[in-house]
Amino acid sequence: QVQLVESGGGSVQAGGSLRLSCAASKFTYYMAWFRQEPGKEREGVAEIGGDVITTYVDSVKGRFTISKDNAKNTLYLQMNSLKPEDTAVYYCAAGCSFWFSGCNSWGQGTQVNVSS
Predict the structure, then answer these.
(1) Secondary structure of residue 67 in the 3-state scheme
(2) Which 3 state secondary structure label does DSSP give 57?
(3) Who is most buried in 56, 74, 88, 113, counting CB within 10 A?
(4) Per residue of the chain (116 residues), what is the pLDDT tens digit?
């Protein structure tokens, strides 16, 4: 199991930006960001394999960027051009396989609110 602690959520107007951080006790090969809206299932948003293999769901392509700092054991999600439909609790995940599957460690989540 990997310990994960997210931070950086908050409230922003549409078109704004936020950067989420996830402090990890260690990295696994695939690390990912998920989000969950009230009453909906958790969905994968962005994933990184190794240091450079990145995957995004269509709804965030061109707006979100996943990255990692190996020296700090920190995973990031830079979110630009935010939309109200991006409002959700965002979770960091570890121990994943390709395409957001099989993640076995989760953070507590951080709330992102985007107002129109």
Answers:
(1) strand
(2) coil
(3) 88
(4) 899 999 999 999 999 999 999 999 999 999 999 999 989 999 999 999 998 899 999 999 999 999 999 999 999 999 999 999 999 999 999 999 988 999 999 999 999 999 99
Instruction: Kindly list the distances between the CA atom of residue 66 and the CA atoms of 38, 54, 80, 103, in Å, as whole numbers in the listed order.
Output: 24, 7, 12, 17
Which residues are CB-neighbours of 93 under 8 A, at least 6 positions away? Answer: 4, 31, 32, 33, 34, 100, 103, 105, 106, 107
Distance between CA 46 and CA 65 in Å, rounded? 8
Cross-strand bridge partners of residue 105: 94
Nearest to 18 by CA among 109, 106, 93, 83: 83
* Tokens 């830079």 sit on residue: 78
User: Which residues have CB under 8 Å from 41's CB, separation 6+?
Assistant: none
